[in-house]
Structures are given as structure tokens and as C-alpha cells.
Amino acid sequence: MRPPVGASPGRHRAYTVIFGHETQAGRLFDVLLIAAILSSVVVIMLESVTSIRTEYGGALRGAEWFFTLLFTVEYVTRLWCVGRPITYSKSFLGLIDLLAVLPTYISVLIPGGQVLTVVRILRVLRIFRILKLAHYVGEAGILIRALRTSRYKITVFVLAIVTITVIVGSLMYLIEGPGNGFTSIPRGVYWGIVTLTTVGFGDIIPRTPWGQVLASVVMIMGYGVIAVPTGIVTAELVHSARSQAGPECPGCGQRGHDADARHCKSCGDSLRQ
User: Residue 9: how many CA atoms within 13 Å on its side-chain side?
Assistant: First the structure.
């Protein structure tokens, strides 16, 4: 984002403070903004506690409206000082800024809608810019690429799990029956999911010998089920990390070269062997 061409000194100053982080005023603004974001989220969380809401509901509601008006002014100011306000409003951070103020206004029409304002916590992502942690964003990119690359394998795995749980749930409905809590096939599928994922709520348990045998098999399968997606994503993470590292020097083993590099930056050996 850039300030508009030919903008007044006031708009340039506002842009420098709001979007810049090199000046002292810009850093102070970012720190105060994050403090306000975290405070508003705490207010929403406290308001959800019945005992606290009963005693301090009015004060918490007033604080929520204060933060909402504050963020509304900030959002309008952001649109005012950028060169392309529509482009900013459609960006990821722009949409988050908008979603941070809408729920409180919606709560006027739909009681309880202000709970959705916890989305403001996403605005803390700006701390990456404040603390100059942009390299963490690059690491997050590797993770996203790994998940995107492994999506087909994960999809096949999930479909296989769904198939297993449907079969197991149907068998448990047949073996145990309504008398033991398995009142329907969906109820049996629910038990299969809970058991296969090793959660084990214990609200439904098999009571017949054959049902317990099947449950034991499902429990053992659960340990293997946990390992499969972990292995898939880990393999893709390693592959993505190696791909980003660039070609490896056959001479010294140095990595980190550019993708189009022809010679090692450490020993000068050819990378095209």
C-alpha cells in the first residue's frame, strides 16, 4: 500500500504513522493498536462469563462499544490515507479490519452477535511486521505449500477413514443393538469416529464379547491412523524445505543457492553436474 499521489501533508503523515514501522510514532501506534486489540478480546471473553456479566455487564458493554468506535475510526483513517482504498479493503488485512468492527453493529439487530468480534485476535498478525519477524511468514509459506501438495493424499486418507467408520458403525449397530446404546447406524458411526481417533468419550461402550473384540481392533487401528497423516505432511515439509533451499553443491554440500545459480557460492564448483 502507498499514499495517494499528490496527497496533503496530513495524509502522508497519517500513512507514515499507520502503515509505517520505521518511525517512533509508527512503532508506538502499532504497539497501542495491539494492546487495544488484546484488551477488546479480553472484554468479550469476560462478558461470556455469566457471573461477571451479571455484575459488570454494563461496563463491559460500554468498553466493547468504545473499542468498536476506536477501530472504526482507525479503519476509516486507513482507507483515507492509502492511495487505493478499494484494493486495501479487499486485501486480507483489510477484510480482517472490517470484520473486527462489524459484529458489534450486527449485535444491535442480532443479540449475541458481538461474540464474533473475537476475530479481532487475527489483527495481532501485525506483530510480525512490528517485531520484524517476516522470516516466520516464509516458514509458514513452506507449511502451507506442504499442506497444499499433500491435499490429495490426505483426501484419500480421509475417505478411507470415513469408509472404515461407516463399516465399523454398522457392525456395532448389528452386534450391540439399541439395548446397549447403539440405537442407529449414525450412532455407531459416531462411536467409530470417537474410538478410531483415540478420543474415547465413554458415553457409548460395547457390552457383548464380539462388540468388545471389534472395539479392540478399532483401538489398535487408531494408533496407526494417527501416524499416517503426520508422515504424509512431514514428508512434504522436508521436500518443500529442500526445494526452497535450492540446489546442493556436489563438491561441498552447501545449500541455499538461487534456483538459477550455476556455481557454488562457497567453493565455486559447478552446480550443473
Answer: 0
